[in-house]
């Protein structure tokens, strides 16, 4: 009986040439690795978008991961912070981010007569992500959705394949830490990035620092709240060093897409 990975190999193997949006996360790594198995590295270009909206370490870590997996890899720079529609941080912010991503990927795909593919999974379809429609409208495909893969299935298959990202925590863009209507600025993104990096250094693998003006609202998984309280002084220092006046701990625990609740 064919495995899920076998099905994906057959599915992407019919696409000939691919440009993979490669963040180095769980989904895009699994997609890039399997696509490369199916087509060969010369027919699969994995592209990482670098911008202030992502932590500085993300692009370099993606490059190292691509090298270790034998992927053909390229880093491009996107310029969403120069787009007033993105900076305004309305609920359609992700649409303008994907617009700039596709602006960077499309010329590469055109030069190779390739299809742009994104590591979107079934679970992603249930959240507010207007960027997905932008990508679809511009010709991108979502192979993981097309064969019906959930996040849990992708993690499971990644573990079977020995991919180092199998248990990697999700790492959405830094702008997702800002409530809608709060302008996305370089200084704000850097404050979030610095605070999170310092808290990561305390041993917290998964966390968010939500930006609320002078207040940094720290989210860690519910089972790690007691440990966060034990590290209270260090977490407060991390947030204040990053430029926040106040630091608070969210007692509900980490929840992806938390700020989308404001959309009703």
Topology (elements, then pairings):
Blueprint: H1 4-13, E1 18-21, H2 26-39, E2 44-50, H3 56-69, E3 72-77, H4 84-87, H5 93-112, E4 115-117, H6 131-137, H7 143-146, H8 151-160, H9 186-200, E5 208-212, E6 215-219, H10 225-230, H11 232-241, E7 246-249
Parallel strand pairs: 1-2, 1-4, 2-3, 6-7
Antiparallel strand pairs: 5-6
Provide an overview of this structure:
It is built from 11 helices and 7 strands. The protein has helices spanning 4-13, 26-39, 56-69, 84-87, 93-112, 131-137, 143-146, 151-160, 186-200, 225-230, 232-241, and strands spanning 18-21, 44-50, 72-77, 115-117, 208-212, 215-219, 246-249. The strands form 2 sheets. It has a 4-stranded parallel sheet, with helices on both faces. Helix 5 (93-112) packs parallel to helix 6 (131-137) and helix 9 packs antiparallel against helix 11. The radius of gyration is 19 Å and the shape is globular. The model has no long low-confidence stretch (mean pLDDT 95).
Structural key phrases:
264 residues; single chain; 4-stranded parallel β-sheet; alpha/beta; 3-stranded mixed β-sheet; 43% helix
Task: Indicate the radius of gyration in whole angstroms.
Answer: 19 Å
Terminus-to-terminus distance: 44 Å
Can you write the helix and strand succession as a string?
A: HEHEHEHHEHHHHEEHHE
Shape: globular
Q: Are there runs of 5+ residues with pLDDT below 50, and where?
A: none
Q: Structural class of the helices, strands and pairings?
A: alpha/beta
| Number of distinct beta strands | 7
Estimate the mean pLDDT confidence. Answer: 95
The profile of the biggest β sheet is:
4 strands, parallel
Beta-strand portion reads 5-15%
Strand order of the largest sheet: 3-2-1-4
């Amino acid at each position: 009986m064919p495995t899920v990975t076998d099905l994906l190999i057959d599915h992407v193997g019919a696409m000939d040439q691919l440009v993979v949006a490669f963040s180095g996360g769980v989904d895009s790594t699994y997609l890039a690795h399997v696509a490369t198995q199916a087509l060969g590295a010369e027919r699969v270009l994995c592209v990482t978008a670098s911008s202030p909206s992502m932590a500085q370490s993300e692009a370099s870590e993606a490059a190292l991961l691509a090298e270790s997996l034998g992927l053909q890899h390229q880093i491009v720079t996107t310029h969403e912070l120069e787009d007033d529609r993105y900076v305004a941080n309305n609920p359609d912010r992700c649409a303008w981010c994907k617009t700039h991503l596709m602006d960077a990927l499309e010329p590469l795909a055109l030069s190779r007569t390739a299809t742009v593919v994104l590591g979107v999974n079934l679970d992603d379809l249930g959240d507010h992500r207007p960027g997905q429609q932008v990508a679809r409208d511009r010709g991108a495909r979502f192979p993981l959705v097309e064969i019906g893969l959930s996040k849990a299935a992708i993690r499971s298959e990644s573990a079977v394949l020995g991919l180092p990202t199998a248990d990697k925590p999700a790492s959405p863009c830094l702008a997702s830490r800002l409530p809608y209507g709060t302008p996305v600025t370089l200084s704000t993104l850097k404050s979030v990035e610095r605070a999170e990096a310092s808290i990561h250094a305390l041993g917290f693998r998964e966390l968010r620092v939500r930006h609320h003006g002078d207040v940094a609202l720290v989210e860690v998984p519910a089972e790690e709240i007691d440990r966060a309280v034990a590290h209270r002084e260090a977490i407060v220092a991390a947030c204040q060093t990053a430029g926040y006046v106040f630091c608070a701990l969210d007692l509900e625990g980490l929840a992806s897409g938390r700020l989308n609740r404001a959309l009703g």
